[in-house]
Design brief:
The protein has 10 helices and 9 strands. By secondary structure, the chain is an alpha+beta fold. It has a single domain, classed as DD-peptidase/beta-lactamase superfamily (Beta-lactamase, 3-Layer(aba) Sandwich), CATH 3.40.710.10. The strands form 3 sheets. Strands 2-1-9-8-7 form a 5-stranded antiparallel sheet, sandwiched between helices. Strands 3-4 form a two-stranded antiparallel sheet.
Length: 303
């Protein structure tokens, strides 16, 4: 028994000596002008780059549109599309005026395909007009502490007036932390494609603008955005119904590289922060066992 005790002490001392080696810092490099990574549970910031700088939100706005709609109306309630939906600029789902669509399906249209006509239909169906709905969006933003955000449309489309709507990477992260409580939002953000139907029975096929979902099974879930002024924008989470991190970026010209960087480095930062002595010890013992097995394989292969 004394022999095993000495072995255990030796292992612990070796592990502790290894722990004294200074860890390399986790470097996050993004093209975006502004970005934030924060813990989903408590909002603690793990990384930030110019988090308070105001930029146009583009279609990340639709996350707030979804939040307000979910809080004001049943998902299975039908909304009749108004005449204006046929005049909305692309991207659109192709809604037909006078046709009724379930709110759940319209949410799919805005969160998967980023359909601007569906955002307008939601606004008019929930609040009676686009203007009244936008007021609800800004009220919710203020309650969430999004002090540097102002929405002008439910779609994020530009109004033609400079600086008529704006947000920050910090505020987008706050919005995503709140949005994650609604499972329907996370489920729709995770979908690559979907079909919806109106009261006319016509099928509308939706394909996500988050192209990274087609490239990797662990791609981040979230909402993309683009306008000429805003460039590429994104707000999202790590792919889980119980996400560990939320992250956001504004004014990027290398979106896919940026969101992959923020997701991967964000999880590294999260895991490092939440490591314990016991978890480190278990990981170290496992690594030593692997090394031992590999050494034995090499020994047998050369004899």
């Amino acid at each position: 028994m004394r022999k095993y005790g000495y072995c255990l002490i030796f292992l612990l001392l070796t592990f502790i000596a290894g722990c004294t080696v200074r860890e390399e810092p986790i470097v996050v490099q993004v093209d975006a002008k502004a970005a934030v990574i924060a813990e989903a549970k408590n909002g603690e910031v793990l990384y930030e780059k110019d988090p308070g700088k105001r930029y146009p939100p583009a279609s990340t706005t639709k996350v707030m549109t979804a939040i307000v709609a979910i809080e004001k109306m049943s998902l299975n309630k039908y909304i009749k599309a108004g005449k204006k939906v046929s005049k909305v600029e692309p991207t659109v789902a192709g809604l037909e005026p006078g046709v009724k669509y379930r709110l759940k399906d319209l949410l799919a249209a805005i969160l998967i395909k980023s359909a601007n006509d569906a955002a307008l239909a939601i606004a008019e169906g929930v609040a009676g007009s686009e203007e009244k709905f936008v007021r609800l969006m800004n009220t919710r933003a203020r309650k969430l502490g999004m002090d540097d955000t102002y929405f002008a449309t439910p779609s994020g489309l530009p109004t033609g007036k400079k600086d008529s709507q704006y947000t920050t990477a910090r505020d987008l992260a706050k919005m995503m932390r709140y949005a994650r409580r609604y499972e329907i939002i996370l489920e729709l953000m995770a979908q690559k494609e979907a079909d919806i139907y109106g009261s006319d029975g016509r099928k509308i096929h939706l394909k996500t603008h988050n192209k990274s979902l087609f490239w990797s099974d662990d791609a981040p879930w979230g909402k993309t955005g683009y306008t000429r002024e805003a460039r590429r924008t994104f707000v999202g989470i790590d792919p889980s119904l119980k996400p560990r991190i939320v992250f956001s970026l504004l004014k990027s010209d290398d979106l896919w590289k940026d969101i992959t960087m923020l997701k991967n480095k964000g999880l590294e930062l999260y895991e490092r922060k939440h490591r314990t002595f016991l978890s480190d010890l278990i990981d170290w013992i496992s690594s030593q066992r692997r090394r031992g097995r590999e050494a034995l394989k090499l020994l047998y292969s050369t004899t």
